[in-house]
Design brief:
alpha/beta, four-stranded parallel β-sheet, 4 strands, about 35% helix, disordered C terminus
């Protein structure tokens, strides 16, 4: 089972992400900020395959968190999320620039086409 560390200072976003990921069969670790995420990662005995983190948070921002976590967990991949582009621009002065990640799955390929129901 793959483990995902979800980090967001907004509890509703964090809980929603957790519930979706649990429903998809992932093990989920949670943290409300970067400092807590580093502690959770340090205390977790197994691998953490993915860090899913908000970009702009109080204290350690998402990019810095990803860099610090990568230093001790070299196999962990990072996915950045943000509720609003203006948040990213507002945090740009304190955060290194983020690269764009191309969409791995288009919406047309994400779900199978509906099938006809015969009556």
């Amino acid at each position: 089972m793959e483990t995902i560390l979800v980090v967001d200072d907004e509890s509703l976003v964090r809980v929603l992400a957790r519930d979706i990921l649990l429903g998809a069969g992932y093990q989920v670790l949670e943290a409300e900020d970067g400092e807590q995420a580093l502690r959770v990662a340090e205390e977790h005995p197994g691998a953490i395959q993915v860090l899913l983190t908000d970009v702009v948070m109080p204290g350690i921002n998402g990019k810095e968190l990803a860099n610090r976590l990568a230093a001790v967990r070299t196999d962990t991949k990072a996915i950045f999320m943000s509720g609003c582009a203006s948040e990213v621009r507002a945090g740009a002065a304190s955060a290194p620039p983020l690269g764009r990640m191309p969409s791995a799955v288009s919406s047309r390929r994400a779900a199978p086409a509906p099938t006809a129901v015969q009556r």
